[in-house]
Amino acid sequence: MIGSFRHKGLGAFFATGKAGRLSVQNVGRVSRILRALDAAESPADLDLPGFRFHALKGELSGRYAVSVSGNWRITFAWSGQKAVEVDLEDYH
After folding, report:
1. Of 21, 31, 35, 65, whose CB count within 10 A is highest?
2. Alpha-helix residue ranges (DSSP H) falling in the chain
């Protein structure tokens, strides 16, 4: 389940389906990732074929990432049974 968003445009897209504030072209993929994230009970549930799920290291340790396109990733932390601080970012 998604508990909170860092990226306001991503949160608005999740709530309304309107993609105007997203900075990526592949909105369909973003939608699939968010649906999977909302249904997940643990970070490992996102380790699906094609998602390129991975735990982040260094300064971003404690966060996870799923590939959207190019350098764009949906990143998130996990608290209890919720994904929190869900973000859309190019952290490379």
Report:
1. 65
2. 8-16, 27-39
> How many domains would you assign to the chain?
1
Other Cβ atoms less than 10 A from the Cβ of 32: the count is 16
What is the pTM (predicted TM-score) of this model?
A: 0.93
Going residue by residue through the chain (92 aa), what tens digit of pLDDT does each one get?
999 999 999 999 999 999 888 877 789 999 999 999 999 999 999 999 999 999 999 999 999 999 999 899 999 999 999 999 999 998 76
Residues 48 and 8: their CA atoms lie apart, in Å, by 25
CATH number for the domain that contains residue 67: 3.30.2310.20
Q: 3 in a domain, yes or no?
A: no
| Domain of 17, in residue numbers | 8-90
